[in-house]
User: Fold these one by one.
Assistant:
Number 1:
Amino acid sequence: MATMECKIVTLGEGRVGKTSLALKYVKNEFHKDEISTVNANYLTKLVQIPQGSVQLNIWDTAGQERFRAIASNYYRQAKGALIVYDITDRKSFDKVVSWIKELKSQAEKNIVIVVAGNKCDMEKERQINRPEALEFCRKMQIRHFDTSAKSGNGVEEMFMELASQIFEANKGELGQSGRNSRRGKITVEKTKHRENSGKKGGCC
Amino acid sequence: MSLNPPNRSEIYHRLSLVNIESEKYCKYIEQIEIDLTRTFPDIEYFTIGQGVDSMRRVLKAFVKYHYQLGYVQGMNYIVCALLWHTCEVDAFWLLVVIMDEYKLRENYLFRFPGLTKHCELTELLLSLYMPKLYSHFSNHFVMVQMFATDWYLTIFTSLVPIESSSWVFNSFFKDGWTFVYKFLMTLMERLEDQLLKKNDRIDMLSLIKPIELVSNDSKKFLTSLQKRRETLTWEKLIESSNKKNIDKRHIENFLQNYQMEIFVE
């Protein structure tokens, strides 16, 4: 069976737990004092879903405002995006809206977005009502997950859902190019040549 | 050092008395607070020790001194590394020198124009000195910016362990950005054989930026640079990169013809 390879990107305010979620999922590790991300981290994991397998290449980005100006360098060609907010921080939730808007207008047309309300182990300090978050995501037609990178709650499910939605959204391409691919592995990233020749500078 | 005035201690302490009330300033201060204890979480001095307060004071003073630039993530690493080796006042003024005289400031401006410049120049040098690796990178759409951004924003203080960072500073003060290019090329040379075997962009990127670096653990990375029967240290690595010969004319020519784009926020 062919493996679908795809790039996903983590987005969200600083210190909401983007790196922690990626690290928990890929390495099952949690560090209480995660270091701040400058630029990006690269993580990768092969996910088995009922329909096939997906290799998630995670580009984990920095959260500070200044880095936001170059975020498009990272989500370019991404098939999926994980937008993270911290349930104990109202401001981080407000930023989710603008990330969704930006992705819908700037990113790949069929990009799959999921939202994570992280740090759900800190229920007592919660600032965003669960129903509010759910209602918001329902309107946007985006799946919402309560996650805790600390306990691992919801992390596996979220990435599985992301992988299977990406698989569904891109399986057309898998069928077409899968026949020609070597080693049964194909790359779903859009024809790289065209993407790259027209653009100057920036990364990816 | 012209930017290191004789009354530098007084000026530094006066900066701490300056009061700024603006939304922009508050944002910077907020971000500094967030980053204080998560720059070197394994080093007590910077988590529960006096280093936290020193770091806060130096960064705050810098934001006041360079209000237009403000605080950007990455500066925290340089400040910690400086504080590890010198006193607070000197750390502050050395930061100013690095930013202004050595133009690290350009890297931190909106949309990081200096970073783009340095990365493009690095790519030129790779194409001249390591053509095989360069074309391998191009074929797989690996760009220097994808892996060198934090290294170039922090002049490698986010990579090199803090106790060895004095070697980084010494080389940087002596050779400026040429040291940075040389050091990057040294790393690439040592990874070249492994990189040429990889045919997947993410595999290459995670070889250059292994997951352990996410938690400041550069030991495994250093091991991956090691040749057979060699015991490598960061000091040796820096020393060997200083011995590297690159024709400075390539750099001068590039910079002469380069027009940096400055963006307005």
Number 2:
Amino acid sequence: MTLIEVANLKKSFGTNEVLKKISFSMNKNEVVAMIGPSGSGKSTLLRSLINLEQIDGGSISIGNEYLVKDGVYVKPDGIKKVTGRMGMVFQHFNLFPHLTVKQNLEMAPKLLNLQSAQEIENHAKDLLDKVGLTEKAESYPSSLSGGQKQRVAIARALMLNPDILLFDEPTSALDPELTGEVLKVMKDLAEESMTMIVVTHEMGFAREVANRVVFMDGGEIVESNSPEEFFSNPQHDRTKLFLKKNLK
Amino acid sequence: MVEYWNKIIWPMLEGAQMTVLLFFIAIIVSIPLGFLLTLAVKSSFKPLSWLAHGYITIMRGTPLLLQLLLICFGLPMLPIVGEYLVFDRFVAACIGFVLNYAAYFAEIFRGGLLAIDKGQYEAAQVLGLSKWQTTTRVILPQMFRVALPAVANESITLIKDTALLYAVAVPELLHFAQTAVNREFTIVPYFIAGVIYLIMTLILTIIFKQLERRYKFE
């Protein structure tokens, strides 16, 4: 079942064309790893899906609902409804520094009146347990390590029960020894059939966890394949060159 | 000793009441007003932004004393409208302080907003928060935290600036000190005034240090 459908997406920053008529679709329960050199447009594509970037042309739909149709955005409440089906995890965590871990998790569902206070609290407890940070519930983000912060950020995104989770280079800001704990949480999510798009430089993660690897370069999707095929039998020269540089 | 107390210190403490009253009025009104100015400066409606910018430039770029003199003595001299602009001296002084300090606070808050990472807005957006919720729950608490040391600094300056009331003949602390110096022919009242100012600023310093500790988020 197709969950995300992107057609002819165009996006420029000034005269710099970052996404050149991109078309892309993915199914429910799929885990897609997006890789490519920096400046290839992969983060911009991800951010466009959740309306953090305004696109200049093309269509994006989630489920059967449009976010943008032929370059025209739907009405604000439609945008909210579509983007509300997605959660996002950022490279720099973007936790709220003035709130405790628990408050970070509970703020959005409370403000959006999604559940009762008791349900929200239980949900937060469960998710903190899931990411292994129960004992940090009352801590402020400033006292956490990068890996812990990112795990809190994942839990916070899960609080809204998204159908899709978007990860924008979730381990790029972490010390190498801390990436493992975050990747572990993501792997667990993949095993629970969460639909995920992960923009990453972690080739190991792409190979082991993803169902599909999408390689972007110069604002285009160059190659899209299963991890086995992608890593052992790359089709394009640009892919081969990239892999040669990044797989030692 | 009792006589000294009655003739010098007591009037000075009464004068200090005026100082404290002006301080509270100025702080309580100019902080929200300053915040509104910050919002006006950041407004996407350009004329409003320019107006706020111009206001801040003028109020920060000219002496507070000049502004006070203008409000107390200048406005009533205007043709036609002047007679409607005669205020009680203390009220006039309050208006002057509020208008002036609002401009400073506006700049302090603007600095606080600049310190907030764009990622905070993005996180709030993807979590489905409305603009209002983002401002009140995410941005403002962080902005005030960043602005706190500068607000403390400005508040201490405000305490000392109340001495400018002397120039528009509102009887405050310094006024009574000067009267006592002239009458008793001793400079001791100056020192007493200094100590009273110092006590007031020390109390403020302690309060703000407590606030900073409380809002450390650690």
Number 3:
Amino acid sequence: MAYKRNIDRLPIIPAGAKEHNVACHYCIVGCGYKAYTWPLKTQGSTDSNWIGADLSQQQGAETEAWYAPSMYNVVKQNGKDVHLVIKPDVNCVVNSGLGSIRGARMAENRKSDVTGTQQQRLTDPMVWRYGTWQPTSWDDALDLVARVTARVIDKDNEDDLFVSMFDHGGSAGGYENTWGTGKLYFESMKVRHCRIHNRPAYNSEVHSSRDMGVDELNYNYADYEVTDTIFLVGTNPMECQTNLFLNHMAKGMQNGAKVVISDPRRTVTVDASEQYAGAENVLHLAIKPGSDVALHNTLFTYIADQGWVDADFIAKSTFQGDVAVPADSAHPASLGSFEAARVACKMSLADGAAATGLTEAQIIQAAEWIAKPKEDGSRRKCVTGYEKGIIWGNDNYRAIGSLLNIALATGNVGREGGGCCRLGGHQEGYYRPSDAHVGRPAPYIDDLLIAGRGKVHHIWANDHYKTTLNASQFKRVYNRRSQMVKDAMDAAAGRSREELVDAIVSAVNAGGIFSVCVDIIHSQIGQAAHVILPAAESGEMNLTSMNGERRLRLTEKYMDPPGSARPDCLIAAGIAQNLERVLREEGRNDYADQFKGYDWKTEEDAFMDGYHQGNPEVTYDRLRAMGNDGVLEPVVGYADGKLIGTNRLYEDGVFTRHGREDGKALFCMGEWRGWQAAGKAQQQANHRFFINNGRANMNWQNWFLDQGNEFVMDRFPVPFIQINPEDMAELGIKAGDMVEVYNDMGATQALAYPEPTAKRNETFMVFGAPNGAQGNIVNAGVNELILPNYKATWANIRKISDATPASAAVSYKSWEVEL
Amino acid sequence: MKCNRLVDVGRRQFLRGGVLGAAGAAAATVLPAGQAQAQTAKAMLDYPSSKLANISDLKVNEPMDIGYPDADSPGILLKLGTPVEGGVGPDGDIVAYSVLCPHKGYIMSYAASDKTLNCPGHFSRFDCEKGGQQIWGHATQNLPQFTLRVDDKGDIYAEGADELIYGRLSNVLA
């Protein structure tokens, strides 16, 4: 039977309950929510309540006067138990009261000692001691981290310290925490061996867009509502940016916009677009995996040949000449003028059709919907959204560049109803000192770790074990290297701190690695850690982030962090202060001086030290006053009690993201070249199934909180792999059977879910799951700038078990709505 | 032929207060017999025991519109034709659910083709053969299922619910 909470009534929010602004801490859309808290022994009533509604009556659809059991919990606030309701904000322009299946469980996914939710949250620092992890004080844990770290770093020589650190907003990220970590590793130190939470290097996911002069978040969500065509490439917003789709794209479709979706598989976004726009207004381009550059270049060629371009915009706002930036080791394609790109990218309809598997008619149809002027001669508005399908797909640099070529050629950047933007994963919230010292291409960190490099590893909310490529090998090596240090620590039990540090340093010099894990839960890579430091999340601290239209909001702290958990920025400050102390003790005063400047008592102090310095108009008080609608970055002023933002980038036609003084956008001169990353073509040739992979609606990213949420785990006890039913029959696989997905890199497991719309031999698997890491079978191939290609993976599939009792109980019906 | 436009009509009626008869292909509408009473001192509420229908009234795979625990809470009573966990009656195949989508409260329509309830608002789907499990969608709970009892005359009574019904903070209104 399906999981039921058996909750048939909820405490009513009383009038006068405390109200807090909350931007959802999950996806980049950052839906507005309100958190209400009130004392445990009080409640409202049906006739006296927070909203003044008569709650003795049934409320209608979309009512503000209802909340689900998942939106309720009992949490600690200033040490006391309080009721908590976190419900969607009907007045927020982002979501207009809509909640997603992820965000509307925020309250339930808070740690509660009363209701027992999220007991997996870390509460106290832990160190490896006597053969396991033992709780300890912050002073003790930070002292050990500092003493070991100080032994492997020195002024201008920090290459033995490896750092994996999130760069996102929301969750436990945000401007406060990226600044705290950024100041430590990029200002006090110049750490070069670092990576980001979801990829094996410290790099941009959209280098080409920025090199072409275009920031990847340049529109606002309302542009979807007033456009003529929505062009979605390698993205599935119905599941991954749900309320961007439902509250903005859907309105555009209802206003008459046509929809072009480029994706190898039929997603629920295609289905929902057909519902809203009518199937006749939706064109699904089910391209061969990885053929995006061919599609984009063919569209670009055809559109240019037809003259459906914005000649005035091209003349005024884009580079004139031939090549502006030649291809080199940092630029996987040359960048230059429109005409130069036409020559470089030229691709006929016949060649484009052959490469993509589409018909020429489909490509022409797409080109017409994207660019053909209307009957009265006026230009079509087209907004383009893209995400991991090309970011983590084939030939990242050229795939994004070739797509942006189309938007630039048609004058669809910086205009109402236009924009060419990534749709995003987390919210953003990046404010750090320059990372220029890291270099480009950036070091391939996970490969270096496999090769035995690095002695101390600081990990900030990264879980390589679930979200890296070549993960099977990575885990084998990392387990062995970290176990060497555990063994050394075990052997030093009972000895002094100095002797313990000596033992650890000996082990890392012999090939081991000392692993420090800062996280909100005990992650999978955290099983290898020697020190574990508990962090706070959004809402357990004040936290600022920016959403996918650059909307900056402050999420107000509404509860205490679990136990002694701290905001990451204050943990970073603690590491810096301990390093300074230890270095002084060791007489390394010059180096110690670099670790001054962390006298922060609160996350607001870190915000003021970082983001506020670069954006002096912005303070917590002003953001609080701006509420859940916040302000669109960049903030350009403050007047009449309000922050003044920027509705849309590049409305003046001046492009700046590349730093060129002429302000001209560049076109990408990247011809189609098939599989770019090493080993992909060979893996495809040797295995039957394409293992496409990505996110799913129900669970957030790597399931870190959802793995402790009954509602989610009841639905998908094991990560699913969608397979065509005829393929399943051939392999003797029934719905719910456990299958092994295996190839030359390793193996992983999944629950077989029949999907009639899946093409034969093309599957889709959930990425980043705790009990079935798809990364196990992704090969080590990356692009020239070390962007992983998780998507291009092939493997064989075999049954390893009948459905588990939990898997046997769930529904295997189609996801497509039947109305 | 899509019938979501029809469901849209149902939704507008619901917003005006005309709840019953809006969802699915109604064979009959049954109002609860007992007076609903809210009591807050128990682990779960006291629900009215409401006669919904007699087994002989039901046709396989044709939902009957009901209101439970009161007339303002629309639902369906359904004989699936194959036994399911939690099903009642001699064939173990009779179930009843709320048809208000727990996401935003739209009235859902029944798809006989795959025995699901489907929301016209944002396209969430629930499996009537799996205890109302959300197959795909935006709701943060599975569908409220009504507890059923069948007496020796074949009369079917609803006597409880296992999730909070959309639009009310107490399943039994005060």
